[in-house]
Each structure stands twice: as C-alpha cells, then as structure tokens.
Design a protein that fits this description.
The chain has 338 residues and is an alpha/beta fold. It folds into two domains: 2-174, UDP-n-acetylglucosamine1-carboxyvinyl-transferase, Chain (Alpha-beta prism), CATH 3.65.10; 184-274, RNA 3'-terminal phosphate cyclase, insert domain (Dihydrodipicolinate Reductase, domain 2, 2-Layer Sandwich), CATH 3.30.360.20. It is built from eight helices and 16 strands. It has helices at 13-26, 46-58, 95-108, 129-142, 198-211, 257-274, 280-292, 305-317; strands spanning 2-5, 30-33, 62-64, 73-76, 84-88, 113-119, 146-153, 162-169, 176-178, 184-194, 219-223, 231-240, 244-250, 295-300, 321-328, 331-337. The strands form four sheets. It has a four-stranded mixed sheet with strand order 1-2-4-3, with helices on one face. Strands 5-6-8-7 form a four-stranded mixed sheet, covered by helices on one side. The longest helix has 18 residues, at 257-274. The two termini are 23 Å apart. It binds adenosine-5'-triphosphate (ATP). Residues 10, 12-14, 36, 39, 47, 97, 125-128, 131, 248, 281, 284-285, 306 line the site of adenosine-5'-triphosphate. Its main location: cytoplasm. Its EC number is 6.5.1.4. Keywords: ATP-binding, Cytoplasm, Ligase, Nucleotide-binding. Residues 180-272 form the RNA 3'-terminal phosphate cyclase insert domain. One of its GO terms (biological process) is RNA processing.
C-alpha cells in the first residue's frame, strides 16, 4: 500500500484530490496521513469529503477514514464504473474540484457518464466555472476528450447552492503541445454580482478597464436574478490564437471593488507580459492531464507551490518524467514524457 504524507508541498486539498484521481486511474490503493496539515483547518472539510465519496462511488472503492475532520484516509479502488452521478458538496465548497477528482477516471471508463454537481461554482482558491468551461475543458477536448459542462446556476461562498452538469464520453488522452500563445484575439472583463449593489460591478469594471486598457464594449456587468446568496466575481478572459485563459477575482466583505480589480489586472498583465500560453493555475491542472496522456509540452510562468506539489504527488502513482526548463526569468518550458 502506497503511503502518502498529505502535509508535503502545499499540504492542502490538492494532494488528496490528485491522489484520489490517480489511484482510480491506476488502480493503486493508498493511505494518506496528515491530510491538509498545511491549512488552518486541517483534515477533510465538506468539499474534500465529497471528493472522497465521489471517488469511492466511481471506483467502487473500499475506504476508511472518510469523515469530516479526518486527517487519515485509506482508499482502495476496485473497478471503474461509468454512470449518472449526483455529487453535492452541501456547503459552498468547490464543486469544480470535486469534478476534477473523478474526471480522469470517467475518461478512462468504458461507457459515457453524466454528472450533476452542486456546491460552489465560483470559489476563491479553486477553478471557477468560467475557467473550467472556457480554459480547462477546451484544452482537454484538444487532447481528445469529449467533455462538456453546462452551468445551471452559480454558487458563491458562503451560501453555495450552485449547480452544473457535465457530460463525459470516454477517450484516451493525446499529448498536448502548447508552446506559443499566438496573437491575442479578444479580451473581455465580466463583473458578476448577486444580491450585492450593482455599483460594485461597475467600479470593478471601471478599474480593470482602465488598468488593462479595455474599451467599453469589452466590459460586461451582470446582475444575477436567481443568485443563490450574495456573491461577486470579476472574470477576465483572454482569447488568443492557440489558447484561452481565464483570470478571476472575488469580492469579499471589507475588500474594495477597486482592490479586487487591481489584483486581477496584475495577474492578467503578468500573463500578457510573459507572452506564455499557460497561466499559473492552468499549469498545475495541465501537468496532471499531460501525465495522464503520457506526454505533452507547454510554455508557462515559473511554477508555483501548487504545480510543484502536483509534480510530487503525481510521482507516487505514475512513471512520468517532467523537465522544467528556464527560458528566462518569467518563462518556463515544461516537457512531460511517459
Ligand atoms: N482563480 C483560479 N482559477 C483557476 N484555478 C484556480 C484558481 N485558484 C485556484 N485554482 C486551482 O485550484 C486548486 C486549489 O488547490 P488547493 O490545494 O489550494 O485546494 P483547496 O482544496 O481549495 O484548498 P485546501 O488546501 O484548503 O483544501 C489548484 O489546482 C489551483 O490551480
């Protein structure tokens, strides 16, 4: 039985989710200790427990330690089962992260699957639905996978209540090559508010528009009528010839709309200035997809803690070689070989 120390690297939920995903795909059982030891509230929170339960269902797995607050888990998959699944986090915990836990396994299953996911769809420190639908899934489709996602309703922290559907047709993944971004074709900023003043959206767009030199027709305020509680997200989409990237900031109580906009604009500028196709968040998520495809190469920003943790966690389950070459101070070339 593989033994994994969950406090390694970031010491967060990613070590657990990546381990579950790769355990399912490879059929390798594991025990994890020190789950999320690097976080203020360690152990399994609702989102992580839902990911464990989802993986248990998809892999007909034998599991012990699957309880709220648990810091130790044993997971032994038996057989992958496609199907119609419904996974509800029950809080505003990220439902997109639950999806990413089981998606590799469902791509490797024999039959198509349909998933209904409920929880947070626009969470800080997790892939927002817009990123999933317009950055992550298009690349996954380019790698040969047939996966589509449809948002039913958004869910923000702290109320949750978001819902989306995902259809998966199993395919073997092909290696991806994404070494250049090409020309930037379109830039757009969308500010969404739910049950908070519309003015917040306008102020965010005004600031992000001036910092990124966007025209008025590239700024889209959106007020949700059926919002599931208060929430605000500022989403900047950059569509280039070879890739689309999505950057997101979240409003919080006590945080000025202008600050939310400045932070997102800084992230977008860093990406644009480095002239790379793959941003920081996409990087750690693409690493796993390339490892599953047994190959791939992409140009990105210097690897952050999540990407380094991803490399360390993947190495427990897969015999892939990953080279990270420094092109210049802000640019790295990642090559994955199976
Ligand atoms: N704005 C964003 N856009 C896209 N992806 C994001 C964004 N912010 C974070 N992510 C991704 O979400 C994942 C978060 O991993 P992390 O280990 O922090 O998990 P977590 O479960 O949210 O946190 P915790 O450690 O509290 O459990 C990473 O893959 C990261 O790239």
């Amino acid at each position: 039985m593989l033994r994994i120390d969950g406090s390694k690297g970031e010491g967060g939920g990613q070590v657990l989710r990546t381990s579950l995903a790769l355990s399912l795909v490879t059929g390798t059982p594991f025990t994890m200790t020190n789950i999320r030891a690097g976080r203020a509230k360690p152990g399994l929170l609702r989102q992580h427990l839902t990911a464990v339960k989802a993986a248990e269902a998809v892999g007909a797995a034998e599991v012990s330690g699957a309880e709220l607050g648990s810091r130790e888990l044993t997971f032994q998959p038996r057989a992958l089962a496609a199907g119609n699944y419904h996974f509800a986090v029950g809080t505003a915990g990220s439902a997109t992260l639950v999806l990413q836990t089981v998606l590799p396994a469902l791509l490797a299953a024999k039959e198509p699957s349909t998933l209904m996911l409920e929880g947070g769809t626009h969470n800080p420190a997790a892939p927002p639905f817009d990123f999933l639908a317009r950055a992550y899934l298009p690349l996954l489709r380019r790698m040969g996978a047939d996966v589509t996602a449809t948002l039913d309703r958004p869910g923000f922290f702290p109320a949750g209540g978001g819902k989306f559907r995902v259809d998966v047709r199993p395919q073997a993944l092909k290696p991806l090559s994404l070494m250049s971004r090409g020309r930037v074709l379109r830039r757009e900023a969308k500010a969404v508010v739910s049950m908070i003043p519309f003015d917040v959206a306008k102020r965010e767009l005004e600031t992000v528009g001036s910092l990124l030199e966007l025209r008025p027709d590239q700024l889209r305020p959106e007020e949700l009528k059926r919002g599931q509680g208060p929430g605000n997200a500022l989403v900047v989409e950059v569509e280039s010839e070879h890739v689309t990237e999505v950057f997101t900031g979240f409003g919080e109580r006590g945080k000025r709309a202008e600050t939310v906009a400045e932070e997102v604009a800084a992230e977008v500028k860093r990406y644009l200035n480095a002239e790379v196709p793959v941003g920081e968040h996409l990087c750690d998520q693409l690493l796993l997809l390339c490892a599953l495809a047994r190959g791939g190469e992409f140009r990105t920003l210097p690897l952050d803690g999540h990407a380094l943790t991803q490399l360390e966690t993947m190495a427990h389950f897969l015999d892939v070689k990953v080279d990270v070459g420094e092109v210049d101070r802000d640019v790295r070339d990642v090559v994955v070989r199976g």
